[in-house]
DNA sequence: GGAGCTC
DNA sequence: GAGCTCCAACGCTCT
DNA sequence: AGAGCG
């Protein structure tokens, strides 16, 4: 072990990291610590595609400018927990990554590139994907490679495959199709060859299968050799040993079409992108099909006419949800129902011998390794329940709504005496579980691997609004009231609720009225707006903000009693063991409505179809505005402008800054917000607080920018030194007095009101 | 990057 | 103790 | 037979 080794704990493994400050990419420069960090952060996603595949390491112990070498066999000094597999009698003992710790250990070996075979355990000799490596000659424009990859994608669809794309991390593009692991390599090669030859026939001047340099000249090599025995291709999310440490990055077909080169994807950017938009390949395994040369009927003849027709409707196809799974007759299917009978529960159904083996899961699916959930074996169900969804009428057994929570295919990865391990592949859920019989009909369901992203850990940045001036009209939208209060993300773990502000601050303690008894849920992430309502049911921002600022248990309890808050929930991001952010808005909201218990502090934010009407009503009621949401849209934490629009109900407001609040945070130099009032017929009307958590300096700048916009530069009641707005803002005592008067009850106190009004 | 071998 | 060496592989093509 | 190729 090198002398300066640093020990880290990854899962249950301890790993010695050596030479962390060694530069591996001098052009960055990038040191080894950053490489380890990269692989640590993408490991759960990386493993989804690489787990169980024999590895080739490309190691750069002296950095990308030093010597590089391949390594396949498992060195005998590897820790005992690094797994391995032998492809045949006389082959290597290939290493196989299974857990995050394995990836970190490999990263420490300065193994920048990880390459994998197309087969994986338990059938390493039967590929479960075909890779088409598009390898352009020098000076072949990237855009043209993309075009060719896109065409290849279409040809593959014509043959009934579901293609996925990634950058190679260098000049090329890899098009990958998942297949069922049922054929030997020669059969798979033959199928691949047929499709590639088809493409080459259509694009004679662009593409070739001929591998010799001379014959290739200026054409792209469609390299099928990556599919051969013992051959590997760079793994999805692997780094490449090139300047800047680019990544072999899975992309959606839409993303691919907009790429101009592969430069956006590097060790530095990929973790953020992944966090932002997830893994485009996540559901890949659910789209495995039989190779086209061995199907009973070839689904689509690959003649040019068919392809043209396909191309025509492709725009629609690509932008909408993926189509139905193909070839499902060849693999075992599964469904999980959310069944809101007398007692809410889930039903896990696995296809086996022509029936659905079923278990009732009273508390949903486990969300994390180590979490176990009871699973009670129930009677087998007929296959037709795979897709059944609806309401079981009152009086019948199990009366109540039953939703398809996830459906796709599954594979048993390991059989044990007391149970089995299985992996779910679907659009909704891709995870490994262990089913373990404890006694009789009682089983325990346990999650095996870490999720890509732990939705229940800490806060999730909420999807934000974009302000617009007019109500977007159309059948594409649904409309909700814009509740004027505190945006809050709720995380529920078991029976514990935590509340997070939009900036990720934990505000749980401020609102003791929100507890899990109001929600029919075991684990979840919900999005809503906390409001305090006035006598006629209008949100009073001043009151709720006061709730946010009260300190001390006693004060909070008193405030909660005086001004009880409710929360209008409008979205659901995670539900009992699976993220739902990628389900369409309507589905998320249907689930949400179902999980809110009546007569609690939680309410469902109703939506309506008529935007104009709601807008008019909102204006009449003095509400802040309405929100238009695009139907079918996903939830993109952190933002995605254009999917969610906020409309101000008043446009020509003249605001005046009448004070500021002291911040409630720990930093003494922060100012809470500007207190703004609107000019009305009969004086100033409090409109709320602008921003929060400014430093004095930032606030001065903001005030300077805003003051000229106000009708009067400064209200008359501000004492002395009228010239310097910044100094005016520093009149803390005075403004605090205004603040408290403004916010007691959300109204201007009598005296102050008079003073503000009349007599300015 | 780590280990085994050689001097 | 320092210095050197090893650490892959397939199948096809060209020479 | 051996080197080259990715």
Written description of the protein model:
- α1 packs across α2.
- This protein has 760 residues and is α+β, with helices and mostly antiparallel strands.
- Helices cover 23% and strands 31% of the residues.
- The chain folds into 5 domains: 112 residues, DNA primase, PRIM domain (Alpha-Beta Complex); 123 residues, Alpha-Beta Plaits (2-Layer Sandwich), CATH 3.30.70.3300; 144 residues, no CATH class; 183 residues, D-amino Acid Aminotransferase, Chain A, domain 1, CATH 3.30.470.30; 106 residues, OB fold (Dihydrolipoamide Acetyltransferase, E2P) (Beta Barrel).
- The strands form 10 sheets. An 8-stranded antiparallel β-barrel has the order 19-20-21-22-27-26-25-24. Strands 15-16-12-14-13-18 form a 6-stranded mixed beta sheet.
- The chain starts with 5 loop residues before the first strand and ends with a helix.
- It is globular.
- The protein binds 3 DNA strands through β5 and β6.
* Low-confidence regions: 297-330, 650-655, 661-673, 688-694, 705-760
- Average pLDDT across residues? 81
For the sheet with most strands, the description reads:
8 strands, antiparallel, barrel
Sheet/helix structural class: alpha+beta
Kindly report how far apart the N and C termini lie: 78 Å
Rg: 30 Å
| Helicity, as a percent range | 10-25%
* CATH fold annotation of the largest domain: D-amino Acid Aminotransferase, Chain A, domain 1
Can you count the helices?
A: 16
Q: CATH class of the largest domain, please? A: Alpha Beta
Strand percent estimate? 25-35%
Shape: globular
Question: Biggest sheet: strands side by side, in what order?
Answer: 19-20-21-22-27-26-25-24
């Amino acid at each position: 072990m090198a002398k300066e080794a640093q020990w880290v704990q990854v899962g249950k493994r301890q790993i010695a990291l050596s030479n962390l400050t060694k530069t591996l990419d001098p052009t960055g420069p990038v040191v080894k610590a950053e490489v380890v960090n990269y692989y640590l952060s993408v490991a759960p996603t990386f493993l989804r595609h690489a787990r169980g595949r024999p590895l080739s390491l490309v190691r750069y112990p002296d950095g990308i400018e030093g010597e590089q070498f391949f390594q396949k066999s498992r060195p005998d000094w590897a820790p005992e927990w690094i797994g391995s597999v032998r492809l045949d009698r006389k082959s290597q003992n290939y290493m196989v990554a299974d857990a995050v710790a394995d990836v970190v250990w490999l990263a420490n070996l300065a193994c920048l590139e990880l390459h994998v075979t197309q087969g994986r355990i338990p059938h390493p000799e039967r590929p479960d994907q075909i890779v088409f490596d598009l390898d352009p000659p020098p000076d072949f424009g990237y855009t043209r490679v993309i075009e060719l990859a896109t065409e290849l994608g279409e040809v593959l669809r014509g043959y009934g495959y579901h293609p996925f794309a990634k950058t190679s991390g260098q000049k090329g593009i890899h098009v990958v199709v998942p297949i069922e692991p049922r054929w030997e390599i020669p059969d798979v090669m033959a199928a691949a060859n047929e499709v590639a030859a088809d493409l080459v026939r259509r694009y004679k001047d662009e593409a070739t299968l001929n591998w010799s340099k001379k014959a290739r000249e200026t054409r792209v090599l469609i390299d099928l050799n990556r599919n051969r025995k013992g051959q590997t291709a760079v793994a999805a999310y692997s780094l490449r040993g090139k300047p800047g440490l680019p990544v072999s990055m899975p992309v959606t077909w839409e993303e691919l079409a907009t790429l101009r080169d592969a430069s956006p994807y590097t060790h530095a950017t990929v973790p953020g992108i992944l966090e932002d938009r997830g893994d485009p390949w996540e559901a890949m395994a659910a789209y495995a099909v039989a190779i086209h040369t061995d199907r009973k009927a070839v689904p689509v003849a690959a003649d040019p006419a068919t392809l043209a027709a396909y191309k025509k409707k492709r725009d629609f196809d690509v932008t909408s949800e993926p189509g139905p799974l193909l070839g499902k007759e060849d693999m075992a299917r599964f469904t999980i129902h959310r069944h809101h009978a007398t007692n809410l529960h889930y039903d896990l159904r696995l296809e086996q011998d022509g029936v659905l083996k079923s278990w009732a899961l009273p508390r949903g699916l486990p969300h994390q390794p180590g979490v176990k959930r009871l699973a009670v074996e129930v009677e087998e169900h007929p296959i037709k329940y795979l897709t059944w969804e609806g309401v079981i009428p009152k009086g019948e057994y199990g009366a109540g709504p039953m939703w398809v929570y996830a459906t796709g295919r599954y594979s048993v990865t390991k059989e044990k005496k007391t149970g089995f391990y299985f992996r779910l592949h679907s659009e909704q859920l891709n995870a490994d579980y262990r089913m373990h019989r404890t006694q009789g009909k009682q089983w325990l369901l346990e999650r095996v691997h870490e999720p890509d992203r732990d939705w229940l850990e800490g806060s999730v940045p909420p999807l934000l609004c974009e302000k617009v001036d007019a109500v977007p009209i159309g059948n594409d939208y649904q409309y909700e009231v814009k509740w004027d209060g505190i945006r809050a993300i709720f995380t529920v773990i078991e029976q514990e609720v935590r509340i997070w502000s939009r900036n990720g601050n934990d505000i749980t303690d401020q609102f003791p009225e929100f507890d899990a008894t109001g929600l029919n849920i075991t684990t979840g992430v919900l999005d809503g707006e906390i409001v305090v309502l006035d006598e006629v049911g209008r949100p009073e921002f001043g009151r709720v903000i006061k709730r946010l600022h009260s300190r001390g248990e006693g004060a909070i309890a008193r405030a909660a009693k005086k001004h009880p808050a409710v929360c209008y929930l409008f979205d659901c991001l995670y539900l009992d063991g699976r993220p739902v952010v990628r389900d369409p808005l309507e589905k998320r909201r249907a689930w949400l409505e179902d999980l809110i218990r009546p007569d609690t502090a939680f309410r469902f934010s109703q939506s309506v179809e008529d935007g104009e009407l709601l807008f008019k009503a909102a204006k009449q009621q003095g509400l802040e505005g309405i929100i238009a949401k695009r139907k079918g849209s996903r939830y993109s934490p952190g933002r995605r402008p254009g999917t969610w629009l906020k409309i101000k109900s008043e446009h020509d407001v003249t605001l005046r800054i009448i004070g500021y609040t002291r911040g409630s945070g720990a930093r003494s130099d922060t100012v809470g917000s500007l207190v703004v009032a609107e000019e009305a017929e009969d004086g100033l009307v409090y409109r709320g607080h602008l921003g929060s958590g400014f430093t004095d300096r930032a606030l001065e700048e903001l005030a300077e920018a805003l003051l000229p916009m106000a009708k009067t530069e400064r209200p008359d009641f501000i004492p002395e030194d009228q010239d310097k707005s910044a100094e005016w803002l520093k009149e803390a005592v005075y403004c605090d007095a205004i603040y408290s008067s403004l916010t007691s009850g959300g109204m201007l106190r009598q005296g102050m009101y008079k003073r503000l009004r009349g007599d300015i």
